[in-house]
Amino acid sequence: MAEEDPNAPHGLRLTINDYPFANDGLLIWDSLKQWVSAYVTHYYPNSSVVESDKELQEWWEEIRTVGHSDKKDEPWWPTLRTQQDHIDIITTIIWVASGHHAAVNFGQYAYAGYFPNKPTIARTKMPSEDPSDQEWKLFVENPEASLLQCFPSQMQATKVMAILDVLLHHSPDDEYIGEEMEPSWGKDPVIKAAFEKLNGRLKEIEGIIDERNTNSNLKNINGAGIMPYELLKPYSGLGVTGKGVP
């Protein structure tokens, strides 16, 4: 869905320009990468320090060989030898646990909370699967009744809706990306300043995403019957909001 291009925004040329996940996600990614770059280069001023850090190397080996033992021999694993290797690896891990997870998780209720969109069970076979003459007759005469027999029961649907509500609910103690500084970061002026820059960028991204959602030229997020894309807005209030990046 994208190709590396140094002349394109964020160094990537998108196959689909009006692609809200990519456009908003790249803003978060770049902000994370700047923060990680400042952190890594402060504590690992050159590549030899990265290579000689025994604990760091054992951590990366454990991720590959224990955390992903089924994939440990794959040729695509990056090496951890340079500052840039370190930055890319850490940025990817943070992104997967924050922006990527938020984008695939917190929008589910808007779709699956209306259970006919995504029924969790079929209680009967599809009408075309070996129907008896009587079953086919009932289907032709009253397809809605056949559909309701196939759908989950009210109790089954309600259970799934309740589970989704719990899964996608922002609680009062949720911590959002770039919001709270770790006490140890505040003790180091360089790291403190880098984190404050991250915090400021994420607040700016909130406004950029709001502005994009009002842009009538972006047909995938603006228009009649089109939902604004807010899954990568960094912050959220309480409840099922469809936004917020923990």
UniProtKB/TrEMBL annotation:
Residue ranges constituting the Lipoxygenase domain according to the UniProt record: 1-246
Pfam family, one: Lipoxygenase
UniProt keyword terms in alphabetical order: Dioxygenase, Metal-binding, Oxidoreductase
GO BP field: lipid oxidation
Lineage: superkingdom: Eukaryota
GO MF term list: metal ion binding; oxidoreductase activity, acting on single donors with incorporation of molecular oxygen, incorporation of two atoms of oxygen
Record InterPro entries: LipOase (IPR000907), LipOase_C (IPR013819), LipOase_C_sf (IPR036226)
Protein name: Lipoxygenase domain-containing protein
Taxonomic source organism: Gossypium lobatum
Lineage of the organism: Eukaryota, Viridiplantae, Streptophyta, Embryophyta, Tracheophyta
